[in-house]
Design a protein that fits this description.
With 310 residues, the chain is α/β, with parallel strands linked by helices. The chain has three domains: 64 residues, ACT domain (Alpha-Beta Plaits), CATH 3.30.70; 143 residues, 3-Layer(aba) Sandwich (Rossmann fold), CATH 3.40.50; 87 residues. The chain is 34% helix and 25% strand. The chain has eleven helices and 15 strands. It has a five-stranded parallel sheet, covered by helices on one side. Helix 1 runs antiparallel to helix 2 and helix 3 packs across helix 6. The longest helix has 27 residues.
Length: 310
């Protein structure tokens, strides 16, 4: 079994860390360098955790588990206005990043008002691209309950965060965390930090359940393996956007347009098959700026092979 861990430390002697990752058969999922500091998220065999931990301590760094690594999670407010995008949303996004996830903060175009708020089909399609969606509503119970329609059509797992505990919304989301409403200051007190930890723990459980479902019918290829193949493609290697390849639980997001690179994506050979035969490749609904690759499961590939033989 592989586990995902994160290294935090200096750039000094970091070459030794990368050599050790390669020696144990691990994969670098994401790395970020800021001045002389380095953060590396990696997937390594569980039995070699001690080896990497020893090397990390030797070169002055720290190695820790990150259960949300390999996921991209959206944190959504009703609008981007200061009335609906309070500081807790940023604190929640930070907690997700500490857990290893790539977090994205966004707001609805017309989410304002209990009786006038809306969510468009395109917005739902954008949110469905993520591994999970944290939807933050406000401080008034009737308002929160009225806005259930904002989340009930989202296919991705939804975690609702609000001030009061709403009634009758358990069936339209995976989990509800109450006690976090709108406020104009950061969550700094012990009680508030405990509430952020509760949100992180809730997201971990939702993601763990999704991973368990995938284990019952595994993907044809692990997203990290596909990432290694894609990294050799020059337009991706030259991409200046942060994290040109973002891992998802069931695939990945590649930050180059699909239309311009369709031939490459469709015909990339993976274990003797074209990528288009083992994955669903589509344009992102987010300004058509990225390519979404959702890897099919082993059973889906087997079913397709049986149909071809009939």
């Amino acid at each position: 079994m592989f586990e995902v861990v994160k290294y935090d430390g200096g750039v000094y002697r970091s070459a030794e860390l990368f050599e050790a990752i390669e020696d144990v058969g691990g994969t670098v999922l994401h790395q970020l360098r800021s001045a002389q500091m380095l953060t590396v998220t990696m997937s390594i065999p569980e039995e070699d955790h001690g080896v990497l931990e020893s090397i990390s301590k030797e070169i002055g760094g720290d190695l820790r588990s990150v259960p949300l690594a390999g996921t991209e999670i959206a944190v959504v407010g009703c609008t981007l206005g200061r009335h609906h995008m309070p500081h807790p949303i940023c604190d929640i996004a930070e907690v997700l990043r500490e857990g290893g996830a790539i977090s994205v903060v966004m707001g609805l175009a017309r989410g304002r008002g209990k009786n006038t708020s809306q969510i468009s089909k395109r917005e739902i399609e954008v949110l469905d691209e993520y591994d999970a969606v944290i939807f933050m509503l406000g401080n008034f119970k009737p308002c929160v309950e009225t806005k259930r329609f904002l989340i009930e059509d989202i296919t991705a797992p939804v975690i609702l965060v609000s001030g009061p505990m709403p009634d009758g919304m358990d069936d339209c989301c995976e989990a509800i965390v109450a006690g976090v409403g709108r406020k104009c200051e950061r969550m700094k007190s012990a009680e508030e930090r405990a509430k952020l930890a509760e949100i992180g723990s809730t997201v971990n459980k939702v993601i763990a359940e999704r991973k368990r479902q995938l284990e019952e019918d595994p993907l044809y290829i692990h997203p990290a393996e596909l990432k290694q193949l894609l990294e050799t493609y020059e337009p991706i290697d030259m991409c200046l956007r942060p994290a040109p390849i973002v891992l998802h639980l069931d695939g990945l997001r590649v930050k180059i347009p699909y239309k311009e690179h369709k031939d490459y994506f469709d015909n990339l050979m993976v274990y003797g098959r074209r990528l288009s035969e083992i994955a669903d490749i589509t344009e992102s609904k987010l300004q058509d700026s990225s390519t979404l690759i959702r890897i099919r499961t082993t059973s889906q590939i087997e079913d397709a092979d049986r149909k071809k033989q009939q």
